[in-house]
Each structure stands twice: as structure tokens, then as C-alpha cells.
Amino acid sequence: SIAILLYLARKFKTPDHWYPSDLQKRARVDEYLSWQHVNIRGKGSKLFLTKVLLPLLTGQPLPPEKLEGVTEELNVVLKQFEEKFLQDKPFIAGSEISLADVVALVELMQPVGAGYDLFEERPKLAEWRRRVEEAVGKQLFQEAHEGILNAKNL
């Protein structure tokens, strides 16, 4: 999916902020997009699978200690995300939204869809989410995440 996003940004000459031509900003986007696969995506989807899909498939609730371990793994990468990528900037690459922000938030919505509000005690992360939602449009954001946000009701 990352390769497709980059292809589309180049092919359709999207506004520069999505995949910046400035090499330092682009390096920040590329760095995040490379890092996220085994970190945000890996840990976020693991929590979703563990909390929603496995109990649905097996008919058995997960042992609390297993869920606690998966949640802690996610919390570690969320802390890294805030410290390394967000720092004190509005968005990952600086003052404007980029593909990195959209990819990051999409991945973080999986644990939210599993009932884990990872934004609740993280004001910096919550504020970043608000900025990303506003940049893409709140209605579009809600439409795009409707399915995942209702997954815990399966």
C-alpha cells in the first residue's frame, strides 16, 4: 500500500505537502513509512487481531495477561512515535500534513476499533489526530473508518 500511495502521489502530481519535494521533509516521510511496518502497523494490528478477531474466530475470550502484553507492546511504539516522529511539530514532516500522517492515523484506528482508546491519555497524540482529521475533513475521515470503528460490535 505504501508503494501505491507513492505512485499515486507522483503520477497525479498531488500538492507537494503530501510527498514533499524538499529532501529533508521527504526523508522524514520516508523514514516514518519505513519504520511503521513493524512498529505502529505491526503492534496496532496485533492488538486488533488479539482483541477482536481471535475471540470472534475461536469463540473464546483472550486471557487478560496476553492482551496486557500486546497492549504494552503498542504503548512502547506509541511513545516512540510521539518522541521520534511528532516531537513538537504539528505533523510528522513539519507544519503540513503528509502521507506519513495519513498512514499513521489509519493504522492507529485499528486498536481504537478494538476498543482501546490510545488517544485518551496522550494529549500530544490526540491533538495530532485532531489536526489530521481536520486536514482531510472530519466527515471523510469518519466515512473511511466507519467499518473499523464498528468492528468491536461483531
From TrEMBL:
CDD domains: GST_C_Theta
EC id: 2.5.1.18
Major localisation: cytoplasm
Gene Ontology biological process: glutathione metabolic process
Catalytic activity: RX + glutathione = an S-substituted glutathione + a halide anion + H(+)
GST C-terminal domain segment(s): 22-154
GO cellular component, one term: cytoplasm
Keyword terms of this UniProt record: Cytoplasm, Transferase
Lineage top rank: taxon: Eukaryota
Single GO molecular function: glutathione transferase activity
Keyword Membrane: no
Subcellular location: Cytoplasm
Subunit structure: Homodimer.
Annotated family: Belongs to the GST superfamily. Theta family.
Protein name as annotated: glutathione transferase
Protein species of origin: Pelecanoides urinatrix
Phylogenetic classification of the source organism: Eukaryota, Metazoa, Chordata, Craniata, Vertebrata
